[in-house]
Amino acid sequence: MPRTNFEQLLEAGVHFGHLKRKWNPKMAPYIFMEKNGIHIIDLHKTIIKIDEAASVLKQIVKSGRKVLFVATKKQAKDIVAEKVSQIGMPYVTERWPGGMLTNFPTIRKAVKKMSQIDRMSTDGTFNNLSKRERLQITRQRAKLEKNLGSIADLSRLPAAIFVVDIQKEANAVREANRLNIPVIAMVDTCCDPTLVDFVIPANDDATKSIAYIIEVVCSAIQEGTEERKLEKDKEERDAVRPEAEGGREKNTRLRSRKSRSGKTTVAAKEGEAKEPEAEAEADTDTDTDTDAQAEE
Fold first, then answer.
1. Is 112 inside a domain boundary?
2. The pTM is what?
């Protein structure tokens, strides 16, 4: 079942492209027509590409990996920050820090610097600093939080990146391509789709269009997260079940041993009780034989 339909995309304005004079000829397969000097995107192909991208994102998240969202243009940054933070994925909505992917260890050091400053404020180190030093460290912390706070949980390179407007985020796309990280992006008629692994032909300038595509993508990621959680719960239950069954088998063996030992004890007691009777009967028979011999 498709994740969206033609009417919803049309209402969100996803079909509006750029002016004809600004188009990229490589986007020709995704263009339906030209109207009033503006290219119109083929929404039927957009539906197919959205489903393909959503399926890929869902499988990535289901495997326990992260997807990095990149959107620094003002139409998209607030939308991405709000929607993506709800599903627990990292995102970049301020300036793209150069070398964030290709020089990832340095970025991780900057993120750790934030935690060090937080530790200083809690263990009393701030009290030993001058007012000026405290002010400088506080400003440094605020700057790091603004640029890198949204990727604090990103402990390793993402499995894929989702980009809004690949022209504006050219550095992010270039770094991802260098590291062979899959790129999923909203691509307008003025962009080069060959730089992207999973193209979503759509209007990347209108707030409503961006919000709609991001919502569909985030819902797919949420599904992947929930399925992963269910699989983990199932694995835990399957791991606990053999232990419980082993305990039950052990108890059963113990009970069977007790019952067998009980039966053996009863049989031994019965045998002990029968031995005096047999001895008495033997004595009786011996006395009878003796009397018979005397009579003869």
1. yes
2. 0.76
